[in-house]
Specification:
Chain lengths: 566, 368
Amino acid sequence: MNSGKKINTANLVLIFSILVLVIVVAVPVILIFITAFFENGKFNIAGVMKILSDPDTYQALLNSVIIAAGVTLVSTTIGTFFAWLVARTDLPFKKIMKALFLVPFMLPSFIGALAWKVLLSSRAGYINKLLIAMFGLEKAPIDIMSLGGIIAIESMYLFPFVFLQVAGALERMDPTLEESARISGAGLGTITRRITLPLVMPSILAGALLVALYSLSHFGVPSILGTEKGIYNIPTKIYERIYASGGSFGAIRVGTILSMILVIAAALILKLQDVLLKKGQYQIIAGKSMRPMVLKLRGLKIPLLIISVIYIAITVILPTVTIFMVGGLKTYGLPFAAKSMTWDNYLKIFQWKMTRDAIWNSIYLSLGAAFVTMLAGTMISYVIVKMKVRGKFMLQFLGVLPFSLPGTVIALGVILTWSGRFGVNLYNTPWIIFVAYIARYMAFSIKSNSASLSQVSDSLEEASRACGATHWQSLKDIVIPLIKPGMISAFFLIFLPALRELTTSVLLYGPTTRTIGVAIYALNEDGETVRAAALASVALLIIFMGEAIIRKFLAQLDKPRAKVEE
Amino acid sequence: MADLQLSGVSKSYGTRKVLDGLDLTIKSGECFTLLGPSGCGKTVILRLIAGFETPDAGTVSIGSKVVADAKHALPPEERHIGVVFQDYAVWPHKTVHENISYPLEIAKTSKEKTAEAVKKAIDQVGLKGLANRYPYQLSGGQQQRVALARALVTAPSVMLLDEPLTNLDANLREEMRFEIKELQRKTGTTIFYVTHDQEVALAISDRMAIMDEEGKIRQTGTPDEVYEQPVNEFVHQFLGIPNYIPFEIRDGSAFISAGGPKGAADIRIPAAPPAAFRDKAGKAACRPMDIRMEKNAEAADTLPAKVLRLSLLGPIIDYLVEVGGVQLRAQMQTEEATARDMIIAEGDACGLRFTNLMWFGIDGEAVR
């Protein structure tokens, strides 16, 4: 665009952005397609069909669908109900309750699953044992290690997706729409049914689809509650095949074919969501917060509050406490009594090489990946939002593509790309996990950075150029200071989930490159429930601390920004 | 000091050709306004001069130096031009002082000189005492002054202003436009000012150019020239309130041809087109203030008209009158009208006299 060396600043950014996305995203995805559909260089749809109709894989597909459908139904119901309760009733302590309903987001679902296994497995579940003793039952009344159990536990941790969407829509909805219905003589029941519900339906559906997307490709809960009993969904089946064959190409190929199903399903779900959300943007939902009409709960006020509190206690506090308690047991299966408790397990976590390595690996991998992905995402967003170049829609597409790729699929793509095919073999090194994290979280970074970049008016940058600043100086002095909050939130949006990542890491780890998630998972697999729980406790502490620090940090960051936007 | 020159400049966005072979010269030290309707490409011209856009063809020169042609372009930072944007573009994360000192920091000016220049710029735009405020603590007008001071602080030989007053309220706008003019007189900077606001353009320009929707410049001249002697209908109707009387020539006289009521064609305009007028028909044009009204509709050399509407706009009385199916706006000073007992009621007949009729041919060009 400009003369001399300035061409390079702009073009360098452009070329580097394309390179990053092609290497990190495009190549792995293309390789998955090729591996799935081509055998010995020939297009082979019959082979694909054969694998899909194999009873073993077919059952996994079916389970995935059943689990996803169940989880979507349950989380949508719970999420919508609590959203309505918080947004549209006079429930006491609404603000605190709203925050509490989002806490399940913080608790990694596989750690939750681990806790519930301890409490409700048919063999040794503490609650089951208690119920048997109390009522003199023949056998355990509840078996959490079943399809129903998986659905219940996943729903517990995924319902905030619906809750957030619906509560947001209910709060932003123009209250005059309901008021005018009321003036026209409609009762509250009629208004809810005929006005409110249709208006927030797109948000409910959008939240539901997000849950479906996550659940369909969810690894953690089914792996902990299902694998032992032979219940597989697609991601756990892929893992089982690859693990059982020691990472053979045949198994990877089956994996890629199953992955294609996930990719296609995800693409359809996201497309549907896009359509729904666009349709949902009637102008009725104003951007500003207004005071919505509130239903007086009267006599139901206290009972509903108690129900909400109990729900949170059961889904968040009970599993967390369980994990900490089990982590302190001398041997799994002992009753929770002072004499069977010890600090030993916690100390051991920091002494054993395996667990110490896992903690260290997770910390530096997620810090590193968050940092690199934040920077790369900033650069790519800059190209997408600010630069006038042809073909940038490709960047946009590649940048948000990983968002629709399940972790399992990304892991497979990374294996195919970085196992020596292109002269670089990262298998069994931490780098392969690092690359996978970058691919997996790039979309987060691009979304966050694009949002803040699009708020920086072009003229701010042009003004600095007119003042004599080079392109680079104007980026450094004007653009980056203005988007810093977006960059930092991108960093944490990546760092926190990466810290507890399981789905992708579990397919990529080597003997010395376990992450926290993998280590907990492996210990549980080996029947080392107590140690798994101790490590999980440590992980929870790290996560809670991380969240606390970040909240404080982001709150501080928001202050000067809020001023700027006034 | 430097002339600004665009020669044969073309610019397209996709298939839309915004500028086609445009020539424009702004003389050193003058305040030049480019006036045109929204979306006519006037901002593109400013951006071409600033270096935010590159021409597809033609050259852009500052002084004797070609800063851009189809192949090469000097980046904006090497053109040493001050730019003031419509949305101010004041950096929200910098204080007033930091905003204004930034160009000097970039130029690696010494601390003492920077402090001095910033102080002077702050004084010039009347922002004394606000140096440590952040933009969010300033009003729109104050932010606009920061933008102006930032553009001024390096004493550039050329300043480009893109609708800098549009976002201000009417009073502030009036005040600021005099200040800009005053600043330009003091500093001798060449100013290129882009606007769609004719009042600003007429008030501050040494010379101005009127651009049409197709990105063509229709007239260049002093404010006086373009207002009093528009070379075509476009310029005439763009500035001020235009009145047009369509006519046809019969026997060397001009008759109204509005297709109005019967007999309208028989109304002769009490003035003759200039000798150079060759077309069979055309339009006679005038401003509302160029119409003198008579209570006597039969008075000699007047057009017989009827008052349709009378509105009192404070110091001015505004009439809507009709003659032979043509509606015209006429204005007179309220004071003068009362003194001469010239207030004519709605529905009453009157006579119209023209003090300054302009004649446009069929092609819309003025004939004198």
